[in-house]
Design a protein that fits this description.
The complex is a heterodimer. By secondary structure, chain A is mainly alpha-helical. Chain A has helices at residues 18-66, 77-87, 95-110, 123-134, 136-139, 161-166, 175-180, 192-204, 211-230, 238-243, 247-254, 265-285, 292-309, and strands spanning 142-143, 157-158. Chain A has a single domain, classed as Ammonium transporter fold, CATH 1.10.3430. Helices cover 59% and strands 1% of the residues of chain A. Chain B is α/β, with parallel strands linked by helices. Chain B has a six-stranded mixed sheet, sandwiched between helices. In chain B, a hairpin with a 5-residue loop joins strand 7 and strand 8 (91-99). The chains are: A mainly alpha, B alpha/beta. At the A-B interface, helix 1 of A face strand 15, strand 16, helix 9, helix 10 and helix 13 of B.
Chain lengths: 321, 445
């Protein structure tokens, strides 16, 4: 007979792993990715492939030569970061800029803190915001959606709905176009429908809970709704706000990043409300047309504080008789 | 369907031995009866080397209040009284008896007739239970008479009977409810009389519909006993969770079930109470489940306390080829055994063989703060935080974050995608904080 293993209980495990969690996120991203490939064609393919490959490569190199630790790329988290970074970029972005974004995301955003689990800020957003500030022109010229587009950097560009709103332009896409994703924008953020499908899958697999996304969306809906009711001439309808820009992508995939979001349901409400409020304030009063990335990064900074002060409801938290 | 409100998990049920009729395992050549079956004090030996004993004879007398009597489970000759390793890994005094024949004390009623009426008073019942050495058979093995003695100023309102059997693999309580339904229900009425309540709730998980039907059938023959099916969820059989599932009441942090007027007893304990009070039979045997994924014929067996596990295993088909771990009890809270020379204690509910492919834990990775441990904790704690603070020995913070509320159910370790040893560290933290609290009490005195 073999030697007996002696260890403390429990003696069974759910079989869950980081890799499985990351794979469910990747599966949930498929619908939005397909929409991106459909409307932005070759450009979407080049940008996403560059981003994913460079994120994985940078993580591998940094882990091997700088941190000198065990190989971590098999947990698939670098692929998720790479894909999410690409989703936040316009599909006509030059390859070299994408590579810089990946280096900042993985190198600065993730590995400089010690790798997965230790980073205070969402790595993909760190990369994205770095690029937005460093290359404002390239980062804000979005290609017009054309089915099976073969053009890459020379693609015809158009303004996003939010830019149009900000500058009081008239050419806002129809509600149906916004819902299915037939509008300009970062490659992965355009289709509300596809992102909601991914959300449903994540909830089904219990990879994330509903608390953060729903709180963010609800907060944005209520706040923009109040402004809309007060002055419908100046402010867009709350539905337009829900379906444009990076809100859906941010609420479902970026704000729910395990590492950088709070760990209690109560904390998730606070975090979600914070993101919603900051997003609306930037969108309506800031100089940028879009504020989801900044809102998430700002609330990421509050996450440790939220975890320290907002505790779960304890069993037996009642006055002793 | 009713269940507890917070957290919990649903592991693969694996109830392979469900519905297997109990068989009696033949007597071994020698039994090693532990004198300590619980967290209390070991009992004081009443016999000496060379003494002849009968089945049911007192061999260990309770030492103090939180301690229980121990009786001989066989007839024969006491060879020695010495330390023996128990399932918890500690050496504790035990009585070694060579088995000669099967000679029972004449006072024990061995007739199969079910005796329904009980004329004893409350205090007499509790005394009888104490004399018979009954402890909680659900696993904690706390002396039953202590639990039944309601402290001054408190009042029991409801008796809770635990038939949840939420641990995967285990079926011993299930089978007992099928075969001894009438006796269990009479045991319940005796317990109700002992703690002077008019109402008893029996909680049984919905994966045992036949047991629910059987207990319901017998419950109709008495007054005040209600069977409540529960949604299958672990750790339903934990006292605090079960009370919440059945009554909606929440035992306060640091409190006892009696603080919300409840007293909880396991179904197997209830059967032992019936036998003690009605048949004058002390606790000397119990049903255990022998099971595992590679066990050819999992089953439920009547085993005398003190029987070496090696004997049980030999009589039930031997050790499966691919065994990598042997557990006394269920997979969530049972103890991994170093060998099979350990004997069956009053609290041993099962022998579980885990194949070597499932015996080793996965590689520990960084905490990714997914919060699964927080969401699944049935006590509303933050296991990731408690583990971290235990690693760093930050006892004050551990105490503030209610480490002592942890029931060690293992749900957090079970769900962790990074295979982190959460419960291991929390146990360590609990023991350290426990020391701190005790030293504080000593200083106050």
């Amino acid at each position: 007979m073999n030697k007996l293993v002696v260890s403390p209980s429990p003696h069974v495990h759910s079989g869950n792993s980081i890799q499985k969690e990351m794979k469910s996120v990747l599966i949930a991203l498929i619908p939005a990715y397909l929409v991106a490939l459909y409307y932005f064609g070759v450009g979407a393919l080049i940008v996403s492939a560059t981003s994913v490959l460079s994120c994985v490569l940078f993580e591998y190199l940094i882990q091997k030569f700088i941190l000198k630790g065990e190989k971590t790329i098999t947990d698939c988290s670098a692929i998720v970061t790479g894909l999410l970074l690409a989703f936040n970029l316009p599909s006509n972005l030059p390859i070299w800029i994408v590579i810089i974004g990946a280096l900042v995301a993985i190198g600065v955003g993730k590995m400089s803190f010690g790798g997965l689990g230790n980073n205070p800020f969402n790595p993909a957003l760190v990369g994205r915001v770095f690029l937005l500030i460093s290359f404002p022109v390239q980062m804000t010229s979005w290609p017009r959606p054309i089915p099976f587009n073969l053009a890459y950097m020379d693609a015809e560009t158009s303004a996003t709905a939010l830019t149009a709103l900000k500058e009081h332009l008239e050419n806002i896409p129809s509600a149906l176009d916004m819902f299915i994703g037939n509008m300009g924008g970062s490659m992965g953020e355009v289709s509300t429908l596809a992102l909601l499908l991914g959300f449903a899958y994540l909830l089904y697999r219990r990879t994330i809970s509903w608390h953060i996304p729903i709180t963010i969306l609800f907060t944005v809906f209520v706040m923009t709704g109040i402004f809309y009711l007060v002055d419908p001439q100046t402010y867009a309808s709350p539905l337009v706000h829900l379906m444009t820009g990076g809100l859906m992508l941010g609420a479902i995939f970026m704000a729910t990043d395990f590492v950088t979001s709070p760990m209690t349901k109560r904390g998730m409400f606070v975090y979600g409300i914070g993101i919603g409020v900051i997003t609306v304030v930037i969108r309506l009063f800031g100089s940028y047309p879009e504020g989801v990335s900044f809102a998430i990064l700002i609330m990421n900074a509050f996450t440790p504080l939220i975890n320290t002060y907002i505790k779960p409801k304890r069993f037996g938290e009642v006055r002793k008789k | 369907m009713k269940t507890f409100k917070m957290g919990g998990i649903h592991p693969e049920e694996c109830k392979f031995s469900a519905g297997k009729k109990t068989e009696v395992i033949s007597l071994p050549k020698q039994v090693v009866i532990p004198l300590r079956h619980y967290s209390g004090k070991p009992s004081i030996p009443e016999v000496a080397k060379g003494d002849m004993v009968k089945v049911g004879q007192l061999i260990g007398r309770a030492d103090g209040f939180v301690s229980a009597n121990v009786h001989s489970s066989v007839s024969g000759k006491v060879v020695k009284i010495d330390n023996a390793l128990d399932a918890f890994g500690y050496k504790n005094p035990a009585v070694f008896i060579d088995v000669i024949g099967d000679d029972w004390l004449e006072t024990i009623d061995l007739t199969p007739k079910v005796k329904r009426t009980c004329d004893l008073e409350s205090s007499e019942i509790i005394k009888k239970i104490a004399e018979s050495g009954i402890v909680g058979l659900g696993g904690a093995t706390f002396p039953t008479h202590v639990k039944l003695s309601v402290p001054a100023g408190k009042k029991a309102e409801v008796l809770i009977i635990n038939g949840a059997e939420c641990e995967p693999y285990l079926t011993c309580d299930h089978q007992l409810m099928l075969e001894k339904g009438e006796e269990i229900v009479i045991g319940i009425t005796i317990l109700m009389k002992a703690i002077q309540v008019k109402r008893a709730l029996v909680g049984i998980e919905a994966n045992k519909p036949d047991a629910i039907l059987n207990i319901e059938k017998w419950a109709k023959t008495v007054e005040g006993v209600e069977v409540i099916p529960l949604k299958v969820k672990y750790p339903q059989g934990s006292e605090k969770q079960l009370i919440q599932a059945l009554t909606g009441r929440e035992v306060p942090s640091g409190g006892l079930p009696i603080d919300v007027g409840a007293i909880v007893q396991n179904v197997a304990t209830t059967f032992a109470v019936y036998e003690a009070v009605q048949k004058n039979k002390p606790l000397i045997e119990r049903v255990i489940t022998v099971t595992g994924k590679s066990v050819p014929e999992p089953g439920n067996y009547w085993v005398r306390v003190g029987t070496p596990l090696s004997h049980v295993v030999e009589k039930t088909g031997g050790i499966p080829e691919d065994t990598g771990k042997i557990v006394a009890g269920g997979p969530m809270m049972g103890r991994a055994l170093p060998n099979l020379e350990i004997s069956v204690a009053k609290g041993t509910a099962a022998v579980l063989f885990i194949p070597s492919s499932e015996s080793e834990r996965g590689k520990v990775q960084n905490c990714i703060r997914c919060a699964k441990c927080v969401f699944h904790c049935p006590m509303g704690l933050e296991p990731y935080l408690l583990m971290n603070r235990s690693e760093k020995n930050l006892l004050d913070e551990l105490e503030q974050n209610r480490v002592m509320d942890c029931i060690e159910c293992g749900s957090c370790s079970y769900v962790c995608p990074s295979n982190r040893p959460l419960v291991d560290y929390i146990r360590y933290g609990k023991s350290k904080v426990g020391e701190l609290i005790r030293s504080r009490k000593v200083q106050q005195l």
